[in-house]
Design brief:
Order of helices and strands: HHHHHEEEEEEHHEEH
Strand content: 15-25%
Oligomer: single chain
Helix content: 40-55%
Number of strands: 8
Number of domains: 3
Number of helices: 8
Shape: elongated
Radius of gyration: 31 Å
Length: 289
């Protein structure tokens, strides 16, 4: 699969280089003026090698940069993304210059190609422009947890065309920037993990409820690294068929919203058992005459 992608890219580069070459040659094309000697071939190879070497060098240096702020991480990934396109353009211009094609003509050819691509790939231009405004408006950054189109994940990369998200299961979703609409950025504020805990109807609520605040404070002291405040008991949420459902909520960071709920469930189970309250089970009363 990767080999096929590489071949497709090489074919596209070859076609683009050929079009630019013909545009640069114009009507006065002379095969002799574009005769490639061993020396010219060596210069072309050296130009490509230097461009690719600089690309890998810059990427290697960027790998050591680990910004703590999400904005900084966004800029690092954007630079790496733009670098690929810059290297391609530099190689094309450098090679065509060595073939005695005038640089102004090359730039004019690139402008014509850009115009043709603009008419034929309107969605591509929309993605690029939208990506620019996303970065300028600081709507989200690398490392932010966002929700878009029903998919919730952490932003792993922001490119000039696409944005990559990774969900809690490690699944990667790549979305075109023009499709990044109705975004819910959940990283700026704290989140609340909500859980319902069921107890039997036989439980003495008047005796149990005064003991709940002390239990919740103990849970907070044991998990203050996850919980920002002590869990709160909101009261009786519902009266189910075989149980009384109590609702609890705790303030956590967005990245801990699921783990916070799991921890709270576990600690409530252990804590209520210490208070003599067991989990309910379905019951059936049979009356006979």
């Amino acid at each position: 699969m990767n080999r096929t992608k590489h071949l497709i890219k090489l074919a596209l580069f070859a076609v683009l280089a050929g079009v630019l070459f013909l545009l640069g040659a114009g009507k006065n094309f002379n095969a002799e003026s574009y005769h490639i000697s061993w020396e010219s071939a060596g210069r072309i190879g050296l130009t490509i090698f230097i461009a690719l070497a600089l690309e890998h060098l810059i990427l290697y240096i960027l790998s050591f940069i680990k910004p703590k702020r999400h904005r900084g991480r966004t800029l690092v990934t954007l630079i790496a993304n733009l670098l690929r396109y810059v290297v391609i353009i530099v190689i094309l211009i450098g090679v065509l210059s060595l073939l005695n094609v005038n640089t102004p003509t090359i730039l004019a050819g690139i402008g014509v190609m850009a115009l043709i691509i603009g008419f034929g790939a309107e969605s591509l231009i929309t993605d690029v422009v939208t990506g620019f405004f996303i970065l300028m408006d600081n709507q989200y950054n690398v490392g932010d947890i966002i929700e878009v189109g029903g998919f919730r994940g952490t932003v792993s990369e922001i490119g000039i065309r696409t944005t990559s998200l990774i969900d809690a299961g490690g699944n990667v979703k790549i979305i075109n920037n023009s499709d990044m609409k109705n975004i819910l950025n959940r990283s700026d504020n704290s989140s609340k993990a909500v859980t319902d805990f069921s107890i039997p109807y036989e439980t003495d609520m008047e005796k149990l409820e005064p003991q709940i605040p002390g239990l919740l404070e103990e849970i907070y002291q044991s998990h203050s690294d996850i919980m920002k405040t002590a869990p709160i008991y909101l009261g009786v949420q519902s009266l189910s068929a075989s149980s009384v459902d109590l609702r609890f909520v705790v303030e956590v960071g967005e990245s801990d919203i699921y783990s916070g709920a799991r921890i709270l469930n576990r600690e409530l189970l252990v804590g209520f058992r210490k208070l003599g309250v067991e989990c309910p089970f379905p019951q059936l009363d049979v009356h006979s005459k």
